[in-house]
Each structure stands twice: as structure tokens, then as C-alpha cells.
Design a protein that fits this description.
The chain is an alpha+beta fold. Helix content is about 65%, strand content about 10%. The chain contains 13 helices and 6 strands. It has helices at about 5-15, 25-35, 40-60, 85-90, 90-105, 110-115, 115-135, 160-225, 230-265, 295-300, 305-325, 370-435, 440-475, and strands at about 20-25, 65-75, 145-155, 275, 330-340, 350-360. A 4-stranded antiparallel sheet has the order 2-3-5-6, with no helix packed on it. Strands 1-4 form a two-stranded parallel ribbon.
């Protein structure tokens, strides 16, 4: 009869694989997931956009320099004198002579002046002077060219520029926090998938070991049947149990393949990658003592609370922004203006320019929407305050619940470790009794089943404790993405 020694049993329990596989650590999986996750890339771009908006808001403090140019063509020139004024100036001497003659009447002097060349010469000269004045006041503005360089510097805008900058800065901080939260969420997912692979791989190894035990038992019972010390019915019971174990092994193998596919996809690896994980051999976990939790420290560390703090800043600055609509605006403006025709030299066809500078002051009087905007901003500010209070209550409840779950997990794990010791001793005694012929195959299978169940419960308890430690660390706001310790 073939007997199973303790050395062989320990070798089976180790489940050592003869095929070399790539071993992945938890930290490696986390880093690969960081590189492969597309949502993080989107979140990182949002950070870049928020920083650009913050810089745009800061630029509003700085002076603005602009340059403008224009060229205008028209069919007619600008007239400084009306048509009647031009006609009067062109005939100024003639009109003056006629006026004098008319005032003298039909006397001798009037007739003499009307017929003498002296009067005609004087009127002609005056007409020429008037026509010259008309010509001098005639402009050629059918083509106008101009340019201007302007510098504008806000001096006081009611506080709106500072409020906009503070809002943009708070929004940039929110985007940073959102990125950190996305990293934390990815950590949770990676760790869950990783420990799921650890759990299923250990269950698969356990199923293999259990099949090996039953296969050895089946071989031994077959020899006992051949020797006449056992019945065919005993062997059939073992064969049925062995078939059930093989079916469980097939299910465990399929579950392990699916779990590895999920982890590989999350880490950006080919889904058919063949690997094992560094923590596949679960060692005894140390008992974790409960420590006092400082909730104020938890609030300060939680990303959600930090985001709400920035929301409070945005709410406060939104009120200031709405209030700025009631404030005056003061802007300094200066520059250089150039034109052709030259406005500074009688519309001559040449370029001429000048420097200018001054202040622009705007005083808002009344606008109904300003009051409503201020009311809206204050309401949103109060809404954020209520959200902060509610978030603190929910975080405290979450920490309390997860702490309780962790305590239960620790108790279950310690109990599972104790059960393992009892199950191994029971299996050792049952195997010895079976080898001595004082215990039947059915009783030995019962001890083997109890041993397998104890190991399965220890695997579940170990993984459950790992996950609850992870959840508690996350609830306390402790970032451990670059830390392997759970």
C-alpha cells in the first residue's frame, strides 16, 4: 500500500510551479496602470487647461498694448466750408463793390465808381483773396491713412480682476485634486484586481493540492481493494469525490485566467499575458492594533474635503466678483496717433502724429441684474458651507463603518489561522490512522475536506483583511500609491 508522508503533504501544500512565469509586484502593477490609464491622461490635460486659465486671469493685471492701422478711400473729400460759404468767399470783392455802390445810390460818385477801373481792380483782388482762402480750406481726404498704438492699464476695477484670479487659482487647485483623486481611485481598482488574482491563484493551488490528496487516496484505496481490505463501494466514494474536486479545479483555473485578464487589461498588458504575482504565497499577517483616529486630521487629508475648501474659496470670490459690479472702474490709457492727411498741419498730404494719455472712469449707477447676481453668489456660497458640513458627517460615518469591518476581518483572520492548525493536526492524525488501517477512506476524506475548507477560509480572511486595510487607509486620506505596505 502506498502511504502519504508528511513531507509529501507539505510539498503539495506549497504548490510550487515548474513553469517559470513573470512575477508582478503590486507596485509594478500600480505604475503600469498609471501609464496605461486614459482617464488619467484626460485629467492631466484638464490640469493643464486650468493652469492656462489661471495664467490668463493673472494677465488681466498687466497693461495691454495694441496697434491699429486703417486705410479708407472715398469718392469725395471732406469739405470744411459749405457751398454757399465757398461762393461767398470767391466773390467777396464783387459782392462788396456792389454793396457799396448800392448804398451810394444813383449819384455822380456812384456812377463814377461803377465805371472806373479802380473799383474793378480792387474787387478782383478781393475776389482772388477769397478764392485763395477757399482753395486753402479745401482738403484732399479721398484717401485717408491712419495708425494708433495704445497702452491700457487697469488701475481699479472694483476687485473683479483679483476675484477672477483667485477663482482661477482655486479651480486649478481643484483640477490637481481631481487628478489625485483619480490616482487614488485607480489605486483602489488595481489593488482589488491584484488581490483578486492572489485569492483566485491560492484557491487554484489549493484545488490542485486537494486533487492530489484525493488522487493519492484513490490510488491507495485501489490497492486496498485489490488486497481485499476495502470494498469497491469505498473506492467509488473516493472516485466521486475526486471527480468533484477536478471540476472545482477546472472552475478555479478558469476564474484565475479571467482575473489575470482583468489585471493585465488594467495595467496595459496583453490580456493573454502569463504571469504570477509576488504576493501569491500569503504569509501570516500581523495583528493590527486599533489606534485613536483624529477626525480633524482625516478631514485635512481627505481629497474631497480639500476640494470643498477650494469650492469655498470660489464661492467667496464669486461674491466679491458680483459685488464689484457696484464699484467704479478706473483705467489709464495712452498711446501715439498718426494720420495722413496730417490733422495737425492743415490736412497736408503727409504723415503727422501726436502722443496722448488720460484716465477713463466709469461709475455704475443702477442695474437690477447686479443685485440678483450678488444674491445668487451668496446663495451658492451658503450651499458650499452646507456641503462641507454634510461631507464631514459622511466621512466620519464611513471611517467608523470601515474601522468596524476591519475589526471583524482581523477576528476572522485570527480564527482562520487557528482553524488551520486544528485542521492540519486532524488531517495528520487521520492520515496516520488510515495508514494504520484503523480509519476508513470516508473519514479520511472528511479530514481532507475540513483541511481544504480551513485553508480556503484563511485565503478569504487574508484577502478580506488586505482589502479592508486598503479601504481604511483610503478613508483616512492616507495616500499609499507608491507604498507596497497595506
Amino acid at each position: 500500500m502506498k502511504r502519504t508522508s508528511t513531507a509529501i503533504l507539505l510539498l503539495l501544500a506549497a504548490g510550487a510551479s515548474a513553469v517559470a512565469q513573470e512575477r508582478l509586484t503590486l507596485d509594478y502593477c500600480r505604475q503600469q496602470a498609471l501609464k496605461a490609464n486614459k482617464e488619467l491622461l484626460v485629467s492631466d490635460e484638464k490640469k493643464t487647461q486650468a493652469e492656462a486659465l489661471r495664467q490668463i486671469a493673472f494677465d488681466q493685471f498687466l497693461p495691454k498694448v495694441t496697434a491699429n492701422g486703417a486705410a479708407i478711400w472715398s469718392s469725395r473729400s471732406v469739405q470744411l466750408l459749405s457751398n454757399d460759404q465757398q461762393d461767398n468767399l470767391s466773390n467777396l470783392g464783387t459782392n462788396l463793390t456792389h454793396s457799396v455802390v448800392d448804398r451810394l445810390g444813383n449819384g455822380l460818385i456812384a456812377n463814377y465808381l461803377a465805371n472806373t477801373n479802380l473799383v474793378h481792380n480792387i474787387s478782383g483782388r478781393i475776389d482772388g483773396l477769397g478764392q485763395g482762402l477757399v482753395d486753402d480750406l479745401t482738403t484732399d481726404t479721398r484717401a485717408i491713412y491712419g495708425g494708433m498704438v495704445s497702452v491700457t492699464q487697469p488701475i481699479f476695477m472694483g476687485g473683479k480682476i483679483r476675484a477672477m484670479y483667485n477663482i482661477a487659482s482655486a479651480n486649478a487647485e481643484v483640477k490637481d485634486l481631481e487628478y489625485n483623486k483619480a490616482v487614488e481611485d485607480l489605486q483602489i481598482q488595481v489593488d482589488e484586481y491584484y488581490w483578486r488574482v492572489v485569492s483566485v491563484e491560492n484557491k487554484y493551488r489549493l484545488a490542485q493540492n486537494y486533487c492530489n490528496l484525493l488522487d493519492t487516496l484513490n490510488h491507495n484505496v485501489a490497492e486496498m481493494v485489490a488486497s481485499g481490505v476495502a470494498t469497491r463501494a469505498d473506492q467509488l466514494k473516493v472516485e466521486v469525490k475526486l471527480n468533484e474536486a477536478r471540476m472545482s479545479l477546472a472552475k478555479a483555473e478558469n476564474g484565475l485566467a479571467l482575473a489575470k485578464m482583468a489585471l493585465a487589461q488594467l495595467c496595459g498588458m496583453p490580456i493573454n499575458s502569463d504571469f504570477t504575482v509576488e504576493d501569491a504565497d500569503l504569509e501570516n499577517l500581523p495583528a493590527i492594533a486599533d489606534t485613536a483616529i483624529d477626525m480633524e486630521q482625516v478631514y485635512a487629508q481627505r481629497t474631497e474635503m480639500q476640494m470643498l475648501q477650494q469650492a469655498q474659496v470660489i464661492g467667496k470670490e464669486s461674491v466679491n466678483l458680483a459685488r464689484s459690479t457696484f464699484m467704479p472702474n478706473i483705467v489709464a490709457n495712452g498711446g501715439y496717433l498718426i494720420s495722413n492727411p496730417n490733422l495737425l498741419n492743415g490736412f497736408e498730404r503727409e504723415f503727422g502724429g501726436m502722443f496722448y494719455g488720460g484716465f477713463i472712469i466709469n461709475f455704475p449707477i443702477a442695474h437690477a441684474s447686479s443685485f440678483h447676481s450678488l444674491k445668487l453668489a451668496k446663495s451658492k456660497q451658503r450651499e458650499v458651507e452646507y456641503q462641507v458640513s454634510q461631507a464631514k458627517e459622511m466621512i466620519k460615518l464611513q471611517v467608523t463603518q470601515i474601522s468596524q469591518q476591519r475589526k471583524v476581518s482581523m477576528k476572522n483572520y485570527l480564527q482562520a489561522v487557528s482553524n488551520i492548525q486544528s485542521a492540519e493536526e486532524n488531517l495528520r492524525l487521520a492520515q496516520a490512522s488510515f495508514d494504520a488501517g484503523v480509519l476508513g477512506a470516508t473519514d479520511l476524506m472528511g479530514a481532507q475536506t475540513a483541511w481544504m475548507q480551513a485553508f480556503s477560509e484563511k485565503i478569504d480572511a487574508s484577502i478580506d483583511l488586505k482589502i479592508n486595510n486598503l479601504y481604511l487607509s483610503r478613508a483616512l486620506g492616507e495616500s499609499s500609491f507608491n507604498n507596497n505596505e497595506q
